[in-house]
Write a structure and sequence with these properties.
It is a single chain. By secondary structure, the chain is α/β, with parallel strands linked by helices. The protein contains 11 helices and 10 strands. The protein folds into 2 domains: about 190 residues, TIM Barrel (Alpha-Beta Barrel); about 100 residues. The chain has an 8-stranded parallel barrel, surrounded by 5 helices. The longest helix is centred in the C-terminal third of the chain and has 32 residues. It is elongated, with a radius of gyration of 24 Å.
Length: about 325
Amino acid sequence: MSSNGQAGTHGVRIGGVIVGEGAAVVLAQGHEADVRWLSLRGVAGPGAVARARAGWDGPLLVEPGSAADLAEIAEHADGVVIETGDPLARAAAALGLPVVVLRAPGTGLDDWLDAAARCAAEGAAGVVLCEGVGETGGPDLALVRAARRSGRPVLAAPGEDAGLAGAAVAAGADGLWLAPGADAEAVATAREAVTVVGALVREERPSAVPAARQAIDRVDAALAVLLERRAALAGTIQRLKPVGGFAGRDMDRERRLVAAMARRAPRLGEARLAPIMNAVIEGGLHLAEELRAAARENGREPSNQDQADAQALAGGRPHHD
């Protein structure tokens, strides 16, 4: 499987978070974000950045509303946000903080990358690109992929549709820039995309045990989602087969399945994958038998809803398919 991860990307540290290394990050104005952002456009008077810092000890990005905001940003923020064509760009980059360059609507890729290069030349401590802020139709994911080839991390803003978060991560976004007022549900959706989709498409090369364990946790979360879905599909097959349960196992098919999986997991190989898949298949068969028995006790045939209910009772994710 090809990877849309961070290979070839130079990570940029913003506070205690490195954008472009490891998992994609979630940026929002509140709730449980990895990085918070604040815009001072239309905000009158000093003190907004200091107040934001007082209420948040994590990474803080600030977009200035005027040159008068730069001193406060330099004192309290971990990074500065500017838009392509912003007359404050040069002075903001000269603060020596990391800079996030938002692509203004209508700005082409070359001009966007040139703006980032100018920020770096003015002394920015790393430059991150951001696509989709202010775009009514969501981010241009082809542009995200093209911008990543510059070697700079790229954020994507899914806008009001948090469901685009998964597509953005799959396209290679190194972070999700959530819209102003994004609620806890939107943040949770973004985190689920970072965890589950990211585990499938992002290469991670952790250099310390805690980071490696966090990466494994994300892979295990994706495995749990796939195993639940597999169990639901297997339950459907059990209801459709003339001979179901353990008596209806097709060992030739199972061997072909393991051989196909080994082509995607050559380091594990067939010998190691066979007992893993045997346990997965038997777990699904046991679940199907339990559902069938429970349905018969109630005088009916098992259904897809029985499968979903059993998984919910077992503490799994609700089945939405």
